[in-house]
Amino acid sequence: MTGQHASGKSRRAPKVGYLVAVIVNSAMLFLVNIRPGWRELPFLTEDFVSLVWLINLSMLSSAVVNMVYLRYDPAWFKSLCQVGISAIALTVAIRVLQVFPFDFSQYSFNWAALARLLLALAVFGSVVGIVAELARLTKSVIGAGDRSRSVPRL
Questions:
Q1: Three-state DSSP state, 104
Q2: What is the spatial distance between Cα 148 and Cα 150, in angstroms, rounded to a whole number?
Q3: Under 8 Å between Cβ of 111 and 144
Q4: Model confidence at 142, in pLDDT bands (50, 70, 90)?
Q5: Which residues of 19-31 are buried (b: 16+ CB within 10 A; e: fewer)?
Q6: Handedness of CA 43, 27, 56, 36 (dihedral sign)
Q7: For the CA atoms of the chain, what is the radius of gyration?
Q8: Cis peptide before 36 (omega within 30 of 0)
Q9: How far apart are CA 106 and CA 4, in angstroms?
């Protein structure tokens, strides 16, 4: 076995990416919740407490989905999962914008404006990602029907 698809693309590359995503999300969960913990960041306010569960949900769901991808990653399934992950990311970005648990008053640069811009870009990117994955999902389900392959109907 060469580890190559018929098209010549390596089968290992996506698996490595999935593993890296699991490791990064797990590390972030550790850093936010255990050590050093989010309270060590001087620009985060106590309002961040109301967001921790949602941020944890986002990182945990991404880690779990990427663990599943290590064993099972057909296109339709990945698109379906990515819609879910992007919907959670969209919710996180919107809630962080609403709560805005940052205090950048000790800095001379306008970090608040930059943070709001980046969060707005995250909202936009999540919406675009959801639309793109829904299109991919539709294409893979319709395309699978054309090839008479068995794909779960949504």
A1: coil
A2: 7
A3: no
A4: confident
A5: eebbeebbebbee
A6: negative
A7: 19
A8: yes
A9: 53
Residue 6 pLDDT exceeds 90: no
- Token pair, residue 118, equals 């980046």
Q: What is the pLDDT of residue 143?
A: 81
Highest mean pLDDT, choosing among 22-26, 145-149, 150-154: 22-26
Supply 37's token pair: 């913990």
Residues in contact with 88: Cβ distance below 8 Å, sequence separation at least 6, in sequence order:
54, 57, 58, 61
Cα 113–120–21 angle (5° rounding)? 110
In order, the DSSP letters of 128-144 are HHHHHHHHHHHHHHHHH
The SS3 call for residue 151 is coil
Sequence-ordered alpha helix ranges (H) in the chain = 12-33, 49-71, 75-99, 111-146
